[in-house]
Every structure is written in structure tokens, then in C-alpha cells.
Amino acid sequence: KQPLRVETTGAPGQSPNTRGLLYVQIIFDFACATLAGSVTAMKFWKYHALGNDYLVMDPKDLPVPLTIEQIKTICHRNFGVGSDGILLGPLPSQKAPFGLRIYNPDGSEAEKSGNGLRIYSRYLWDRKLVGTDEFAIETPGGVVKSTVFDGGKMVRVEMGRVSFVSDKIPVTGPHREVINEKISVGGREFTYCAAT
């Protein structure tokens, strides 16, 4: 594993320790598969929202696209920076000013993440790419609307309507709302709800 160098700064474009933000710029010397086979510095911004912490990475700062193994290592809490995932953007989009890909720590891709989208919205605000007007972000799960307000202290993301309808989730069985249903797993019974 390569060394980790942490530079504590303010949010992008701001002075250090601005309003006590929980923000750290991270430079992680990580072995990337480059043509020369050399170690390349990768730049991250780390934010948290309601207990979820994500690394935000601008694809322009990456020498090559991330692999699943790199994502796993970077997100690993003992061998990497440690996070609940990686927010990769801004990306080009045909449907919104900003595109975003959300990676889970196992390298899989999520369609949406409420806390991830709030973090990414704040990151865009910190970089002065958005102001206080509502803006759109395209994710694999669709376009969401976001607003940063109260001097950056609050972020509102409209995730769309939740549905508990079995056909939309999908859940097998008759057409119904999947709320407080019973399921048996490994000899134990659990109560669950399912939504999309």
C-alpha cells in the first residue's frame, strides 16, 4: 500500500476551517495502472452527511478511470481512505448541467443516494459551480433537483416519489404494497418493507 498524505484545508475555494465544516482534502498516493506504471497522486474531497461519508472525485483529476479493485481499496477503512462510497463527477450529461456516478465500497454502482446527492450538491456549491438557485443532477436512477441554501448549511434534494408497489420494486406475489411483511431466513422470521 502507498502512503496517505492528508492536507486539512477549507472547502474548495474557501479558507481552512470555514464555519467548522467537516471537510478534508485528501491526496492519496495510489498505484494506478498508468502507461509508465508509476504511482500517481489522486485528489479527493471527503464530506459526510448524517453519518454517511463519501469521497468526491472529479474525473478530470484521474489519470485513468477507476477500477472496481481501486474503488474497494480506496473505500476500505483500514487500507484506504475509508468511506461509504465514491461520488464521481461532474460528468457530462444530456439531461442536466451535472452528471454523477455513485460507487459503493464494493465497487458496484448505486442509482441514487440521498446523502450522497446532498454531499455532491454541497461540493458543487463549494466549488462555486452552483449558487442558491435550484439545479439538476443526472444519476443512473434519473434526474434529481437540488438546492443549496442558508449559506451552504442546508441542502434539499428532491429524490422523486417513493413506491411500495410490489410490481415496481419488483417483489413476487400478488400486486400489493410491500409494508410490514414477514419473511423467514435461516430459521428466523423478520418483518420488512420494500420500496423503490
Explained architecture:
It is a single chain. By secondary structure, the protein is mainly β. It contains 2 helices and 12 strands. Strands 1, 2, 3, 4, 5, 6, 7, 8, 9 and 10 form a 10-stranded mixed beta sheet that branches. A two-stranded antiparallel sheet has the order 11-12. The longest helix has 13 residues, at 114-126. Residues 1-10 and 14-36 have low confidence and may be disordered.
Give the secondary structure arrangement, pairings included.
Layout: E1 4-7, E2 24-31, E3 39-49, E4 52-57, H1 68-75, E5 86-91, E6 98-103, E7 109-110, H2 114-126, E8 135-139, E9 142-149, E10 154-158, E11 181-185, E12 188-192
Parallel strand pairs: 4-5, 6-8
Antiparallel strand pairs: 1-2, 2-3, 3-4, 5-6, 6-7, 8-9, 9-10, 11-12
Provide tags for this entry.
disordered N terminus; mainly beta; ten-stranded mixed beta sheet; 2 helices; globular; 196 residues
